[in-house]
TrEMBL record:
Keywords: Cell membrane, Membrane, Transmembrane, Transmembrane helix. It comes from Candidatus Thermoflexus japonica. The chain crosses the membrane at residues 6-24, 94-113, 119-136, 261-281, 293-313. GO terms for cellular component: plasma membrane. This is Type II secretion system protein GspF domain-containing protein. The lineage of its organism: Bacteria, Bacillati, Chloroflexota, Thermoflexia, Thermoflexales.
Length: 321
């Protein structure tokens, strides 16, 4: 085994240890720091909070990176994406995680295949793996939110008919329903209690949850506050519409499940089979790379046709309701 491999192994183990310490090492200290901010706002304890040292442990380069990217457009977009995925990390922390996973991907690809182009592919895959995880979390959270929204609106309607205010009805949703919808409505209630208007709090929730159904609810509430009307009846109609949309989307998802899986298989199977063959018969697969421009042209054509087939299938099964 070459000395470069030992260097990669040592570097990968170090990066993995740093990543685990970073993710799991400072959770309690972070909570304590947030509580200190509220304690510092109390007049009798402000001096005590200022003299007490901050307990949170962070990686120094992540703090420096936070300051460097503060206010930049990509950092704000990344912060929004992380909020939609309900991940409690800053943009700088996420970039650090991306760099670490990229190095781990490079290490694993080099150890298994010992081939520079595949090692670079491992680097790219490791870099984008956290992004794919964030997108997966966003999709799952949005589906769960939309599935709960009809019940939440029904609960608000019953509360309004019983004499609750709109804020009390949202508080009931935050108290009675499970996450993620309870978390978002609880945040709306707390933001309004801290001084934000209802319009600002609802728009903030709409930024965090990119849902057409939620946009319909927020628009109805804001228009009713401007022009008046029976909010309970309006929300009852919206609840029925949302329930029907959820039902129809579920039926479409069932009917198109086979085609959706076919698209995933179309992408994963050739890549997985190629990697397996590379591990079984390395010399045979290296002919693609040792035959000059023709081998690379064949690989590029294969990748392009796979992507075209995948996107065509996704376009067919994507039915808007």
């Amino acid at each position: 085994m070459a000395w470069q491999t030992y260097v990669l192994i040592g570097g990968g183990v170090l990066i993995l240890i740093l990543l685990l310490l970073y993710i799991f090492g400072g959770e309690e200290e972070e909570v304590a720091e947030r509580l200190e901010r509220y304690v510092a706002s109390v007049p009798g304890r402000r001096e005590e909070a200022q003299t007490r040292p901050s307990p949170r442990r962070t990686l120094p380069f992540s703090e420096s990176l936070n300051r460097a990217i503060a206010g930049r457009g990509f950092a704000e977009d990344l912060r929004l994406q992380l909020a939609r995925a309900d991940l409690k990390v800053t943009p700088a922390e996420f970039l650090v995680i991306q760099i670490m996973t990229a190095m781990i991907g490079l290490l694993l690809a080099q150890l298994f295949f010992r081939f520079v182009p595949l090692a670079l592919l491992g680097l790219i895959a490791g870099f984008f793996a956290p992004r794919l995880y964030v997108a997966w979390r966003q999709r799952k959270r949005l589906q769960a939110f939309n599935a709960q929204l009809g019940d939440a609106i029904n609960l608000m309607v019953n509360g309004l008919r019983a004499g609750y205010s709109i804020l009390q009805a949202m508080e009931a949703v935050a108290r009675e329903l499970p996450p993620p919808i309870s978390t978002e409505f609880d945040r709306v209630v707390k933001e309004q209690q801290l001084g934000l208007s209802l319009e600002q709090a609802l728009n903030n929730m709409l930024r965090r949850v990119h849902s057409d159904d939620l946009e319909m609810l927020v628009t109805a509430i804001l228009i009713q506050r401007e022009v008046g009307g029976n909010l309970a009846e309006i929300l009852d109609t919206i609840s029925f519409t949302i329930r029907e949309r959820v039902r129809i989307k579920g039926e479409i998802r069932v009917l198109t499940a086979q085609q959706t899986i076919s698209g995933y298989v179309l992408m994963v199977l050739p890549i997985g089979l190629g990697l397996i063959l590379f591990g079984i018969n390395r010399d045979y697969m290296l002919n693609f790379f040792n035959s000059g421009i023709l081998g690379y042209f064949m690989i590029a054509c294969t990748a392009v046709m796979m992507l075209i087939g995948y996107f065509v299938i996704q376009r067919i099964v994507r039915i808007e309701v």
